[in-house]
Amino acid sequence: MHCLNVELGERSYPIVIGSQLLGDPQNLLPYIRGRQVCVVTNETVAPLYLPQLLAALADFDKVDTIELPDGEAFKTLDTVNRIFDLLLERRHNRSTTLIALGGGVVGDMTGFAAACYQRGVDFVQIPTTLLAQVDSSVGGKTGVNHPLGKNMIGAFYQPRVVLADMATLTTLPEREFSAGVAEVIKYGLICDETFFCWLEGNISRLMARDPQALAYAVDRSCRDKAAVVAEDERESGRRAILNFGHTFGHAIEAVQGYGAWLHGEAVAAGMVMAAELSRLRGAIDAGLIDRIRVLLEAARLPQAAPAGMLTGEFLDAMAVDKKIVDGRLRLVLLRALGDAQVVDDTPKALIEQALRHCGAV
Ligand SMILES: O=C(O)C(=O)C[C@@H](O)[C@H](O)[C@H](O)COP(=O)(O)O
Asked: Which pTM value belongs to this model?
């Protein structure tokens, strides 16, 4: 077991990475200030890991749990309202701590509920998917989707601790695992060339969930993310690079219907689109795109738009991206391997060309 820190002054917190962390009260107690807790999880994760966690919480005065339906389609205000209903019915006060036990959807909604409930209560992230361990549990982006756009309602709100229990990855379905690998590859592309090269040499071990390879990938991803977040907590500048591939990916998720493609799958295809656009702008060569495709192929991730998706559908959905400033679409593109930048001067025709290269019609 080891710890990394997300350095944010008084909002700093540790990311604890290890195996079999869930059942040990000592991993949680230092981060819970009151005597009340509410565990938010979903119907898939609860039978697997809730009993262990509840055993670790046995000494608290009030321990409630809520099991939400599983899937991105349920990341809505209505679902968050169910958390508020329980907290109020069971008279949780401002000293309560919400504990997110699950993947990114559970973590994002729990964090948002914690940010809003009685104007803010503590929360703890216990991510049980690869994507949540390497990305969504770190950095304090919380919120829900709207039919018109992904993550359109939310808040920046940091957890007290992130407990990444690698043992929970042993039960993760293959498709979910691959989706997490998309975000791992993203770090290599945007800020860590050495990690990208390591992934090229170790992708088979990673996909086989070799414990050492997996621990290294989670640790390195969290370090990369923590460094970016520490520099720019509320995404006023550099943090936007973490959105590489996401403007395209979010369009896929919104147009296909949330949950049809997993978030990481949409991001994988979106990263190829963003790389293609970077190439069309002359920043990178076709060789790098081939290398990205080889990695995505090995990770069993999509590299093209969903069948039949129109360039117009992409552009319409991308028009509600949160990075738009003064009506200008800002895209995260590559300057080189391991070096991303935000650009706001890409001609629409070039975006359409990149989309068509990636299978949009
Ligand atoms: O933490 C960030 O910042 C990110 O952008 C990480 C993304 O991988 C993650 O999917 C995030 O939830 C996207 O946020 P959004 O602001 O683009 O909705």
From this structure: 0.97
